[in-house]
Amino acid sequence: MASILWNYAGSVVSVFLQLGYTAYTGRTVAPSSFGAYAVGLTVIQFFGYFATAGLAPSLLRAERVTLRMVRAAHRLGVLAGLVCLILIESTAPAMGHLWRMPELGPMLQVMACQFLFMPGASIVVAALRRLGRARTAVTVEVTGQAVGMAAGSALLACGWNPWGVAATQGVAASVTLIMGTIAVASLRLAPGPTVGLRDLLASCSFLTAYSLVQFATNSAPVWATARLLGAGAAGTLSRASTLTGLPLTFVAQGLIRAVTPLITERRWHGLRIAMEHVLCMTSAAAFIGFGVVGGLGPAALTILLGQGWGTAAGLVPLLAAASAATLLCSLGSSIDQARHASAAVIGAQFTVTTGSVLGIAVAAGLRDLSLLVTAAIVGQSAGHVVQLWFWHRSGLLRFDTAARIHLPHILIGAVLGSAAALGSSLGGDPVSALFWGLAATLLAVPVCLLFRSRIPLYRAAIAVGLIPPARRSAGLSEVTGAEKEDGRGNERGRGPGESAFPAA
Fold it and tell me: Measuring CA to CA, how many Å separate 268 from each of 263, 396, 485?
């Protein structure tokens, strides 16, 4: 529990650091330059899968972390990082011509320097987490991030614009590596047996390949925007994605860390009830949470970035919908990985990739930025439908049960998002627009609570004991205390084939 709390605390601090850094760079870096940075960042992250492939997961899954294991992983990481550095430095000019961005080539060459430090940094942080030093690992990561952002901001202020933003991650990785190495060395690890390459990379090839395909699919809208509409449009899309990407990453990581052990534990007993509760939590976070973000986001993004980003603010509602679909699909994939359903993982990802590519092809013909975002919504939504089909066929979750979980949350998210958008329209400036949007959202919440017995999240919270059960009201089908879990993953008061969310 302490480890989870430290991870969440680190995530919260990282979010605020990123918001502050985004607010500063939004006012100092031109949209076209940030578009080149956004494309360069996806290229660096793509090569990063090769530079660190399997090393950090191997340490996290190791039965015992030894000194020789850490050293072997570090040597392999340094070698892979050098290969990636040489590849990017030599191909950076060609990538600049490919995306028709003069600034992309030099920016990639600056950003590639982080491969001297990034593999080693990820290894020492993974070792600290595996050794139960979550507090130290979080401190090292957050400190590196803060120093990197401070260095990037200082370089921008000194006139090294836009290259200062490209140096941020390299500085962060170097600080993380130095602090992490000192922390690991202080633990005096046992030497342990000799560790070979096969031992380090065992069982990671499938997840690495899957992660590469998933990352390429999620990055496709940015790549297509940069190629078809130019660096300015890519910068606009990237800036708009910040407001939805940060909460998406935060919520997804938290849910995945909580859900994966639960599904693994319930894999052979009580999996169906666990699936319903997990889908219910994820559905509420996706549709209700990002519904509110879609309504309040345009005003919030304008405050964050300043004036001149109106096009980016207009994309926030669409990006919020894309984030909701991505969250559902991502959690579904984690569930299928935890229950070792490789066919479901591959089938859903193939659908996401195919739907996204087809949508991007249509948007490319019309050269419309909003359609490129819509392509992501279509792809992720289609992937989640395929996941539901696999679960229905496996007898884990019926289609009608999933519909009874999703539809009320979609309705509530639409109501709260519409109220926020309507309230924001009353404000004459971004600050007052955000104020009136929040006020309208708060006024709409009691209306939704009047029908709480019909809300799946509320019913699930009662079922697991988070909310005391209420008496049944006339005409309402509310979960009672008899429907709580009996401690073995089953539900008291319902038959073996009965859903936790029966039809009204």
Answer: 9, 12, 16
CA distances from 320 to 165, 249, 488 (A): 26, 13, 37
Span 205-227, average pLDDT: 84
Higher pLDDT, 233 or 474: 233
Q: pLDDT by residue (tens digit) across 87-116?
A: 999 999 999 999 989 999 999 999 999 999
Burial of 222-249, coded b for 16+ CB within 10 Å and e otherwise, reads: bbbbbebbbbbbbbbbbbbbbbbbbbbb
Tokens of 468: 């005391």
Q: Is 30 exposed, middle or buried (0-12, 13-18, 19+ CB in 10 A)?
A: middle
Query: How far apart, in whole angstroms, are the C-alpha atoms of residue 217 and residue 470?
Result: 45
Residue type, 413: G
Quick check: 121 and 176 in contact, CB under 8 A?
Answer: yes
Q: Which two tokens stand for residue 335?
A: 């569930």
Q: Is the pLDDT of residue 503 over 70?
A: no
Cα angle 345, 348, 350 (rounded to 5 degrees) comes to 105
Render pLDDT for 176-200 as a digit per residue (tens, 0 to 9): 999 999 999 998 888 877 766 666 6
CB 192 within 8 A of CB 67: yes
DSSP-assigned letter for residue 352: H
Percentages helix, strand, coil for the chain, rounded to the nearest 5? 80, 0, 20
Residue 487 has what pLDDT?
41
Query: Is 51 in contact with 86 (CB distance < 8 Å)?
Result: no
Alpha-carbon distance of 340 to 188, in angstroms, equals 36
- Those residues whose C-beta lies under 8 Å from the C-beta of residue 466, and which sit 6 or more positions away, are none
DSSP state of 485: B
The 10 Å Cβ neighbour count of residue 182 is 11
DSSP string of 27-72, one letter each residue: HHS-HHHHHHHHHHHHHHHHHHHHHSTTHHHHHHH-SS--HHHHHH
Q: What is the pLDDT of residues 350-382, one digit of tens each?
A: 999 999 999 999 988 888 899 999 999 999 999
pTM for this prediction: 0.81
Stretch among 241-245, 264-268, 457-461, 481-485 having the lowest mean pLDDT: 481-485
Residue 407's contacts (CB-CB under 8 Å, 6 or more residues apart) are none
Per-residue confidence (pLDDT) for residue 340, from 0 to 100: 80
SS3 241: helix
Report CA-CA distances (Å) from 436 to 311, 382, 445: 21, 35, 14
Whether the Cβ atoms of residue 224 and residue 233 lie closer than 8 Å to each other = no
Q: Which residues contact 450 (CB under 8 A, 6 or more apart)?
A: none
Q: Hey, what's the torsion of the CAs at 327, 328, 333, 335, to 10 degrees?
A: 110
Span 281-305, pLDDT tens digits:
899 999 999 999 999 999 999 999 9
Beta bridge partners of residue 491, listed in sequence order: 485
DSSP state of 287: I
